[in-house]
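Dig into this one:

. . .
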Amino acid sequence: MSCREFLPLPASLFDAHTRKIHWGTFQGQVENCNLINIPGMYSSENKNDKRLKEWQAFQLGDGDRFICGAVYNAKKFAVIALAYYQRSTNTHHLYKKFVRPSRVSVADGSLPSITNFSHQSNEPHYRITRDQQTGCEIDIYWPASGKLPELKIKAELQDNYNGMTICQPFASQRPLYSYKNVMKASADIQLGTRIHHIQPDNGYAIIDDHKGYYPKEVNYDWGTAADHVGGRLIGFNLTRNQIINQERYNENCLWIDDNLYLLPAITVTHHEDHWHYQDQNGDIDLKFYPLVKNNQKFHLGFVYMNYQGPFGHFEGHISHPNSGRIAINNMLGMAERKRYKL
């Protein structure tokens, strides 16, 4: 099983007085995600900012519908993206817009926080607000374009701000930060002229803050899903990336209602019809079956991208000493296989 354990939650990830980075896994939301202040990265905070990749993503679903949205700022470019999938009707739409980095703001790892696209008329509106007093809200409007129907989302998330914060090393002074949490959610979704309501007894959401000084060549795999099963809200996050010491530092976890369990390092094997997520002891054994493709690929010599981000379902199990064996049957979610140099 995982050799990780929760450490005391620090006020900030970098202590300017001791010059120490707080590496580890913490339960709760760190007050100050100040990665930009870390010395030794580049010659100035301005150059640090230009190298820091950051995004905030969410997943929203009810077992039949699955929606994923993200604001991603790579500093050389920025993108807002939204994907909608309905399993019962095999309906899927992918919305995407590349924008200037100056037009997006990504949550800074503190509360209250706002992730926002500074939209103009006839452009998408994308905003996520998180506040311990007023809660977490998603407000999105994407106008119809070509074959894509108009999409409106207003969601309220029951975030207890007791999720998982990680600070992990790519190298001694190259940290990766993330905060993740699974929660009940209610939402009004309008796709074209059709309106659908998600209620907390069958609705869920995942919030994922992310910042890191990634290597220029990126190689990682990811998988996530959630749903209400037998009266319990179950979700998981599994990642294999380029951080050092995967057993000590990873972001793998299992949620069961308000309980959060840390999981061991994994490997991901890609087969023609499924992707296989496993740990070395058999505690994690999940197969992901893609249903809807979401691929991007280009190669320009000095830069390239080979990205796959399909929707699909997971089958298998996750075990933890404190949770027992949790069966995952036909659970709707998504996976990513990302290889790029930018």
Remarks:
- The longest strand covers residues 174-191.
